[in-house]
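User: Hi! Is it possible to get a structure for several chains at once, not just one? Here's what I have:
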Amino acid sequence: MISNYKLETFITRDEIESKVKELGEKITEDFKGEELFLVGVLKGSWIFMADLVRNIDLPLEVSFISVSSYVGQTTKSSGVVRLLCDIDKPLNDRNVILVEDIVDTGLTLSYLKKLLEVRNPKSFKICALLDKPERRIAEISADYVGFTIPDEFVVGYGLDYNGYFRNLKDISILKLL
Ligand code: IMP
Ligand code: MG
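Assistant: Yes, the chains can be modeled jointly so their relative placement is included. Here is the combined structure:
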């Protein structure tokens, strides 16, 4: 565990709750009469996914995919994306929404987009709770974005630093002292 750090609350649990509700309602409206297949990117998206699905009023299935882009104890992406665990079902003819906690450099999402789009989904969209456009390297954007944030390292609500802080209810800026 780390010892010298400070957390500054950045997005409160109430703000998150109403934004996730808004995202769920928008997705429900956009896919009216359709079924969805939501694919969460582990581990960061799992809490967001749990709240998002309960705000979508459509028949849907959920699956998860696991990738790793950060190596060791760092707040910077290594740029190398590795597939750790694939989805358990085919995607063909399904409305796929990839659910991510945050788009940072965009390298993870562009890797996943390439990997999944060739599996012939009926449609393919990306939903990210947070977006840090200042840090973008790969040219990619999410179709549904909760909050656009500045270049700060944030934790909580599923987002971690070295595996920790995922259980915090608010999203906070992590300052290492
Ligand atoms: P990207 O490939 O650089 O876009 O990185 C995406 C992944 O990096 C996300 O799924 C997160 O797991 C992680 N990440 C990027 N920025 C942050 C942050 O501010 N806090 C926690 N994790 C982050
Ligand atoms: Mg992560």
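Residues 41, 44, 69, 77, 100-109, 153-155, 159-160 surround inosinic acid (ligand 1) (CB under 6 Å). The chain has three helices and nine strands.

User: Great, thank you!
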